[in-house]
């Protein structure tokens, strides 16, 4: 009985201390949960195009949203640990050691972040641009902390790590108001080449949107093929209408050559029997 009484007495004496620990733990968890919820709400609001002034740069929006999210979470974690009674000096030492370990373990991730900062600072591309990089092409939907999101012409989203975008050759088709259309067409050896050139130039010059002046259409004989003479032509069209204009030009070229009875032969293979 004496042992039981002694144990109960010790529990009774420790009850205020245990209760204080539970209160601090509950408060710390409350701070962490509120910080996490607040960070999510603010990030969602910042990502919304309707939030902020109209002059706000849409390219920076996802990065700012992510930066604010991680900043709030960092402060919430710091407040959580402080509420548990962990000294600030110890926290700094722990965070320093964790930062070093994370930096070594996630060097590729940090490389993506550094590349993302360079992309945002130097601006070789921005939201809405149509680009080609690392074998992928599409319009830029988002430049995030870790990856750049492209949307190709099929509507498929492609996530390219920022380090690959930064380190590989990048072609930005939107930075120029004009984009070149180039086509090489094979015509029969019996075709009148001067007439063919004239027809092609007339088609290009008459097409809507085709530039004149220094960027006027050109047409020249490119080479002699196995079954056709290759005629190349080029012109400049508005970059934002490139796909439609080039499709229309191909149709008009085919119709003009058919109308003039200029043959476009396909490759032929002659087999000899022994």
Summarize the helices and strands and which ones pair or pack.
Layout: H1 2-47, H2 61-83, H3 88-105, H4 107-122, E1 130-133, E2 136-143, E3 147-151, E4 157-161, H5 162-167, E5 170-172, E6 178-187, H6 193-206, E7 218-224, E8 229-238, H7 242-259
Antiparallel strand pairs: 1-2, 1-5, 2-3, 3-4, 6-8, 7-8
Helix pairs in contact: 1-2, 6-7
What does this structure look like?
- This protein is an alpha+beta fold and 274 residues long.
- It folds into three domains: 2-105, Helix Hairpins (Orthogonal Bundle); 116-172, SH3 type barrels; 178-259, Alpha-Beta Plaits (2-Layer Sandwich).
- The protein is 51% helix and 19% strand.
- It contains seven helices and eight strands, in the order ααααββββαββαββα.
- The strands form two sheets. A five-stranded antiparallel sheet has the order 4-3-2-1-5. A three-stranded antiparallel sheet has the order 6-8-7, covered by helices on one side.
- A hairpin with a 3-residue loop joins strand 2 (136-143) and strand 3 (147-151).
- Helix 1 (2-47) runs antiparallel to helix 2 (61-83) and helix 6 packs antiparallel against helix 7 (242-259).
- It is rod-shaped and about 105 Å long.
- The mean pLDDT is 79.
């Amino acid at each position: 009985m004496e042992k039981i009484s002694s144990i109960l007495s010790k529990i009774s004496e420790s009850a205020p201390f245990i209760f204080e620990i539970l209160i601090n733990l509950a408060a710390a968890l409350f701070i962490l949960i509120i910080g996490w919820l607040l960070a999510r709400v603010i990030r969602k609001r910042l990502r919304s195009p309707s939030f902020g002034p109209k002059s706000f740069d849409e390219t920076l929006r996802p990065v700012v949203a992510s930066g604010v999210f991680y900043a709030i979470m960092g402060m919430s974690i710091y407040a959580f640990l402080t509420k548990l009674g962990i000294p600030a000096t110890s926290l700094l030492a722990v965070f320093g050691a964790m930062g070093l370990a994370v930096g070594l373990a996630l060097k590729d991730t940090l490389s993506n972040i550094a590349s993302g900062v360079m992309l945002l600072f130097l601006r070789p591309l921005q939201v809405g641009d149509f680009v080609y990089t690392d074998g992928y092409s599409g319009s830029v939907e988002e430049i995030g902390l870790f990856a750049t999101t492209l949307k190709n012409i099929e509507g498929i989203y492609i996530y390219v790590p920022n380090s690959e975008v930064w380190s590989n050759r990048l072609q930005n088709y939107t930075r120029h108001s004009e984009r070149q259309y180039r086509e090489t067409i094979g015509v029969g050896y019996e075709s009148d080449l001067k007439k063919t050139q004239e027809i092609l130039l007339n088609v290009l010059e008459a097409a809507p949107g085709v530039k004149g002046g220094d960027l006027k259409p050109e047409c020249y004989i490119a080479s002699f093929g196995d079954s056709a003479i290759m005629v190349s032509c080029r012109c400049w069209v508005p970059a934002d209408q490139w796909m439609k204009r080039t499709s229309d030009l191909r149709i008009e070229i085919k119709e003009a050559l058919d109308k003039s009875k200029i043959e476009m032969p396909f490759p032929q293979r002659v087999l000899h029997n022994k």
